Amino acid sequence: MLFKKIHFILFFTFILIANIYTQVNDISFNVQSTFDPIIKASNKLTDNPEVIDTIRKITKFNYNIQSYPTYKKYEIEPLTFAKYKEKNIWNANRSFIKGGYGFMYNMPLLELYFGNKNDKDLRYGINYNLLGSNSQLKDVGYSGFLDQYASAFAEKLIEKHLVNFKLDYSNNKMYQYGFDTSVTKLNDKNQYRQQYYYWSPSINIKSRYTDSSKIQHDVTLSFYNLQNYYDVRENNIKIKTDLSTFIHEENFHLDLQYDFYNHKLKSDTINNHIFNLSPYFLAKNENYEIKIGLKATIDAFYTNKFHFYPIFFVNYNIFQHIIEGFAGVDGQLQKNSVKSLSDENPFIQNNIHLTNSNQAYNIFAGLKGRLSSSTSYFIKGTYEKWDSLYFFNINYYNTVQINNQFLVNYDNTNLITVSGQIKHDINSKLFVFASGTYFNYQTKNFNKPYHKPLYRAQASANYILNNQLSFKGDVFIIGEQWAHQPSSDKLLKGIVDMNFMAQYHRSKKFSVFLMFNNIANVRYYRWDRYPTQRFNIMLGLTFIPF
Question: What is the pLDDT of residues 234-248, one digit of tens each?
Answer without folding.
Answer: 999 999 999 999 988
